[in-house]
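User: I'm writing a tutorial on reading structure tokens. Could you give me a worked example: one chain, its sequence, then its tokens, then a sentence or two explaining what the tokens reveal?
Assistant: Sure. Here is the example chain.
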Amino acid sequence: MSRSADARLGRKRNDLPRPRVFALALVAVTMVVLAWSASAHAYRVFVTTNAGAPYDGVGSVASISTGTDALDRPTLELGKGAKGIAVTPDGRRAYATNNYDAKVSVIDTASNTRATADIDVGGYPGEVKVTPDGSTVYVANHLDGVVTVIDPATNKVVGTGIPIGAPSLGGGYSIAITPDGTRVYVTNAVDNTASVIDTSTNTVIGPVIPLGAKPFDIEVTPDGSRAYVVNLAAGSVSVIDTATNAVVGPDIAVGDDPDAIAISPDGSRAYVANQGDKDVSVINTLTNSLAGPDIPVGGLPSGLAFTPTAPGSTSPISQVAAFL
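And here are its predicted structure tokens:
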């Protein structure tokens, strides 16, 4: 909600109810997404899991109905090393990466079946994201240092892959797409940079953006003006101005081994899961400083997700993800 809308309602932004943020401790799951199920009048939560450790066993995807908080269908087997998963905006398809098979599985969410043969992508695919309009799927391939582009209308790979960072070293890790769908930001954990892809041409624009040591997760603010990146080895967060694609201000010191980040729906806070300290740091995005003491959560926090609005809302959302 904009400031002008708040004024028309006669409320201050600080008076508005805040959505809840959830931190996930590291367990067997590798990706969680929520998709609205109109027929069930509830969300469906898709969770990728693996039989082996760390991720070399046969993967699968489980489906949980938020109406019953229970599995609502049999677990669907995927390839080896199931990792990332993303749901299309219309909720009809889910795309899951199998990093040991170097493939992406396409799931028909209504029938809980694999909709087509698995799609060959790059080496060790990790995170996958769908553009807001559902027209394109992007897959970060860590081993090859390329991003694979998939056309969901045909479930075919488009082109030969987009080289990012230092392709000879690999490194594509996390993906964030701007709300208008025009830019894709990809962290390159090997050479400590981020690459920016123009979705109209599927080419990298500008030089890589220097970041802190071992950049992992990246998220873009709801207004598209900033991208926040956690630097795992540096214990910090870098802030990118998406208008200039340059880091603004000094990096923000957070906890030890920050692994994931989530930005509140109103864009006022960024929450960072710190594995080393077993807590969550909260950043005030207006000042880009810590909003208060870190919040202990225990375990190895490695994923964050928000409810779409304040608790009790029934407004549907198409996708909320926690990358682990």
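What the tokens reveal: The CA atoms of residues 125 and 141 lie 4 Å apart. The radius of gyration is 19 Å.
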